Amino acid sequence: MADLVSVTIDGQVVRVPAFTTVAAALAVHGTLTARRSVTGEPRGALCGMGVCQECRVTIDARAHVLACQTLCRDGLVIETAR
User: Fold this and answer.
1) Torsions phi, psi of 67, nearest 5?
2) Yes or no: is domain 4-79 CATH 3.10.20.30?
């Protein structure tokens, strides 16, 4: 089994296997909405390879990071648009 790392998702500390993508960590922990469109519609990971850019989140205070292209590491702070 892979080593577990702690990440914070919208203020909640969760444990996920190391090298899990942020998008997968969000889905496993029930967060399917990564951001909201300009009209307020919920958006989440769609293509899983960085093309659609619907999975943009804020990671460690850096906005517009692609959740599907970012691997979880210990201490990562992830903020979605809830």
Assistant:
1) -65, -30
2) yes
